[in-house]
UniProtKB/TrEMBL annotation:
Biological process terms in GO annotation: regulation of DNA-templated transcription
A Pfam cross-reference name: RHH_6
Biological classification of the source: Bacteria, Pseudomonadati, Pseudomonadota, Betaproteobacteria, Rhodocyclales
Taxonomic source organism: Thauera linaloolentis (strain DSM 12138 / JCM 21573 / CCUG 41526 / CIP 105981 / IAM 15112 / NBRC 102519 / 47Lol)
Domain XACb0070 ribbon-helix-helix as annotated: residue spans: 4-77
Protein name, UniProt field: XACb0070 ribbon-helix-helix domain-containing protein
């Protein structure tokens, strides 16, 4: 069983109504709000992580980036093979 943490959050009334309306339209129940929020947060964290990574590589040419990626793939494959 996964461990959970209780959050107390505040949102505008408009946001509350919009989310609850969406959940109701999709046949979801009140308890599904937590699942919806967790999924939304995961997507937002992924989006921010991608944005940060893109910013860090902004000054690198496409050729340099491809070489870095190729080296990383080779290192990962080598590591995977030696772990087996």
């Amino acid at each position: 069983m996964l461990s959970t943490t209780r959050w107390t959050v505040s949102v505008s009334k408009d946001t509350d109504i919009a989310v609850r309306t969406l959940l109701a339209q999709r046949g979801m129940k009140k308890g599904d709000l937590s699942k919806f929020i967790e999924d939304a947060v995961k997507w937002r964290v992924l989006d921010q992580t991608i944005t940060d990574a893109r910013a860090q590589f902004a000054g690198i040419s496409a050729d340099e980036l491809e070489a870095l990626l190729a080296d990383a793939v080779i290192a990962a494959r080598t590591s995977t093979r030696s772990d087996s």
